[in-house]
Amino acid sequence: MNITNINAEYADANEMRSGFVAVVGKPNVGKSTLVNTIVGQKVAIISSKPQTTRHRILGVKNGPGYQIVFVDTPGIHKASHQLDKYMEKTYRSEIKDADFIIFMIDATHDLREEDKIALKILFGYKNSPNVPIFLAMNKIDKTDPKDLERRYEVLESMGNFQKGFKISALTGKGVNELVNFVAQALPPGPPYFPIGQVTDQNPGVQASEIVREKVLLKTRQEVPHCVFVHTEEFREGSTPDTLYIREIIYVERKSQKGIIIGKDGKKLKQIGTLAREELEVISGKKVYLDLWVKVKEDWRERKDLLRSWGYEV
Ligand SMILES: Nc1nc2c(ncn2[C@@H]2O[C@H](COP(=O)(O)OP(=O)(O)OP(=O)(O)O)[C@@H](O)[C@H]2O)c(=O)[nH]1
Ligand SMILES: [Mg+2]
Fold first, then answer.
1. CA distance 302 to 221
2. Which distant-in-sequence residues (6+ apart) come within 8 Å of 271 by Cβ?
3. Residue 290, beta-bridge partner list
């Protein structure tokens, strides 16, 4: 990246502050929701199912005199598959490379075993003891204030957090305070990304993620974890104002293929319509979305496949 060119976009690049902030925590606490809210755009897909995020996603926030690069990470959980191991490797390396870490907790319940595991991993693998860790207690819109205080005190007494925030990533409550605090704490440095760029994801990856989000929305229980979506083709359509996108939804079993396709292909059609509508808004173009469902047994264990899909396992 040519930093000199990027600096030209900033009037007083010499006084800039910039840095990377990794957002970590157990699955489903609201990490991706927070990054989207801060950036003001959907850079990461969201779902009510755990383990939605599978690779690290950057969300860039520019403000007066600063640029914060938020790193959305896969939820910390015990690894069992090759895919899980990849996810674990991802947040460990992000934890190591960050200027700050935001550890997120779901405030709606007491500390659970998975939170404790996430904390243990965080404090166990943090590379430098000098990386400040902020606590973000999320979902306060859904939390009884008394419970919130009690849980906050428990976490505070653990003593390892530089500062704590009570937020709602969904409604935005408390989020500005968190961003402002991080912004003033950043080290001096040039911006990493040009203004206007909010993420590092390419359009093909973004398209496959949007399709996966719709699959997660429309399926239950074990199916979401068994789904991988890969963009096979992403190009201009028959006219310049159209896009042709071909996505393959991989599942592990024939029965899962049946669930996703649904009776008379109804479910796949719903998934396709929702994804197409969103892709059209993002691209500003008419989208022809070609959706296929294929069975690849045990793809989560197959390093060769994961590598061919861009995962460094
Ligand atoms: N009520 C409420 N719900 C929230 C809030 N933040 C996130 N959620 C919901 O929590 C669920 C999980 O959100 P995600 O942002 O996907 O969580 P995540 O931590 O990125 O999850 P993984 O990617 O699986 O690790 C979704 O249903 C969100 O709508 C919040 O502040 N309040
Ligand atoms: Mg996520």
1. 22
2. 211, 214, 215, 218, 260, 291
3. 246
CA of 263 to the centre of ligand 1 (A): 30
Record the pTM.
0.92
- Given a cut of 60, whether residue 176 has pLDDT beyond it is yes
Rounded distance from Cα 34 to ligand 1 centre (Å): 8
Question: Token pair 């040009």 is at which residue?
Answer: 194
- CA of 264 relative to ligand 2 center, distance in Å: 32
**Residue range 111-125, pLDDT digits in tens:** 988 888 888 777 776
Atom of ligand 1 nearest to the CA of 173: 31
Residue 108: strand, helix, or coil: coil
**Is 217 a residue whose pLDDT tops 80?**
yes
Q: Which residues have a Cβ under 8 Å from the Cβ of 276 and sit 6 or more positions away?
A: 287, 289
Among protein residues, the one whose CA lies closest to atom 8 of ligand 1 = 30
Nearest ligand, CA 50: 1
Instruction: Indicate the SS3 state at residue 25.
Output: strand
Topology of domain 3-185 in CATH is: Rossmann fold (3.40.50)
CATH 3.40.50.920 fits 203-308, yes or no: no
Q: At what angle do helices 31-39 and 175-185 cross, to 10 degrees?
A: 80
- Residues contacting ligand 1 via CB (< 6 Å): 27-33, 46-48, 50-53, 74-75, 138-139, 141-142, 168-170
Average pLDDT over residues 201-216: 96
Residue-range domain boundaries for the chain: 3-185, 203-308
Q: Of ligand 1's atoms, which has the minimum distance to the CA of residue 28?
A: 21
